[in-house]
Structure formats: structure tokens, C-alpha cells
Amino acid sequence: NAALAHYSPSNMSSRKLSVDEVYLSDTGGQYLDGTTDITRTMHWGVPTPLQKETYTRVLMGNIDLSCLIFPPNTAGRTVESFARRALWEVGLNYGHGTGHGIGNFLSVHEWPVGFQTNNIPLTKGMFTSIEPGYYRDGEFGIRIEDIALVVEAQTEKPFLTFEVVSLVPYDRNLIDVSLLSQKQIQYLNAFYKTIRERVGPELQSQQLEEEYRWLQRNTEP
């Protein structure tokens, strides 16, 4: 069912999950201090080589766009292809947008921010999703979605970049590290360090020891 990018469950199409397939969870909530929209794809068994490669290439696209440095007032459509490049290299693609604005206790899809042709230029302070994916009809679907804040980059001239604020690990079981560049590995390690530092103490303060151990395992370098 995850092969449909926006699948909705029903009594006619629902079925039992197994450990031998890809599982896509698009989840979020609305809180007094903001709205979340996070998608993670998991496999609890032994993924196929194709599943690992396509997942890794989706992750590569997510990382490449997330750490991109670009001039102020750049239109989202101008940089959107960075999220697709790793898939394009092997003749693959996805049929939905790469991201959308996120409301502050407002709409989950908040126009006019995003990466479409009719979106306004990216400026400091905007929140947008970054969500490349890959879908194979009748077989499986993959999407990795984070929320990112547009911030100033550490450059001599005032350029912009993204700060990912979705602090959720990716599925190590689906990552083919051999496909990642050194820069992408460094990004992942820094991201996992941030998750440990920010989420770990919160879990411990709530005495969620099982969850804390899970977090430690899944944010190892």
C-alpha cells in the first residue's frame, strides 16, 4: 500500500503487516508551538538490494538538499533538483513535490512556501518540508520527510541554507553506506549527534529508558 504516495487505509484495502516488507509512516501533530510532518520508511526484516539502493538514494537526495547553500531569494524550484539527483543518476524519479510550507499551529501544507513553480522565493525564517521518495507500483514505497528551517549560512556573503528540525533517526537497516559520499556520512553523524544531545536528555528526564536505549542504538556513528 505504501507504493501509493498518498494511500488512505480502508476496510477493503487494509491488511496485516509483516517483517518482510517496507513500511512507510507519514505522521505528524499540531501543538500550541507548531505543527509537525515527518515521514520515515522502515524494514524490520531483510530488505532486497533494490529496496536498500532506492532508500539510500532517497536519503542522499534528502541530505543533498538539506545541506545546500544558496543565494537569498532563490526560488525553491531552482534547487529542487538536488533532492532528485541521486535517483536521476540511475534513471529513477518520484511523482510528487519535494516539499511544502509548514504552518505554525496552522495548516500542515502551508502555501506559498515550497519547491513548486508557483511558490515564493525562500527567505530566512521559513519552514518547509524536504521529502524526496521513490514508489514502485504494486511493490513498495519510500519517502523520507523532514521539516527544515531556512537559516543564514556561515559564508562571507549572506547566503542561506537549511537547518533540519525533525529529530528522528533514519532506518539503518535500509542504508547502503557504500553509496554515500564522505560529506553525506559526516552530515548523518552530525545529525545523529544533535538528536542524542537534544532528545536523549528529554527521554531520560521522563524515565523512558527503553526508548532512550533505542535512540542510542539508532544514532550510533
UniProtKB/TrEMBL annotation:
Top-level taxon of origin: Eukaryota
Q: What keywords appear on the UniProt entry?
A: Aminopeptidase, Hydrolase, Protease
The record's section on Gene3D superfamilies has: Creatinase/methionine aminopeptidase superfamily
What InterPro entries has UniProt attached to this entry? Creatinase/aminopeptidase-like, Pept_M24, Peptidase_M24_C, X-Pro_aminopeptidase_P
Peptidase M24 domain span: 1-151
Domain Peptidase M24 C-terminal residue range list: 158-221
An MF annotation (GO) of this entry:
aminopeptidase activity
Pfam families found in the cross-reference section = Peptidase_M24, Peptidase_M24_C
Instruction: Give the similarity note.
Output: Belongs to the peptidase M24B family.
- Its protein name is Xaa-Pro aminopeptidase 2
Origin species: Struthio camelus australis
Origin organism lineage:
Eukaryota, Metazoa, Chordata, Craniata, Vertebrata
